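Sanity check

After download, print the first record. It should look like this:
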Amino acid sequence: MSNTENKKNAELSTAHFDVTFKVFGEPASKANSRRIVKFGNRIASIKSLKALSYADVFAVQCHSQMNGIVPTEDLVQVEMIIYYASRRPDLDESLILDCMQGLVYVNDRQVRKKIIYWGLDKANPRTIIRVSTLDSNVPKHLCIIDT
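Expected structure tokens:
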């Protein structure tokens, strides 16, 4: 979907939010990308330099594709495929979800459904992301049936 179509979709209805965009680069695993630092007498765990660098790159690329779309306050679902440069990284979308906060949605607590795929592209690591208003239908096979 083009940026123009994204903007039109967002403007057509305040009841439905739907954007798709691409971010180049490989995200760091949030779980494995913390570093310990000392602030005076206090010790803290903060994002690694790789994670901080990715967050900066993400913000620039995402902002350039939003074309003035205001972050939604709706409950949302996120679909993405993360293409990694090697088979080594585990599938971890958490840094990407954090990066979208304030750019695509107001707070990552709005994300109520996630569909995440792992891909391999050694020459062109990237993530293709779609964020849309939550479709609250839970598949029947996941519903608990009392007997």
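If your output differs, re-run the checksum step. Summary of this record's structure: The chain has one domain: 3-134.
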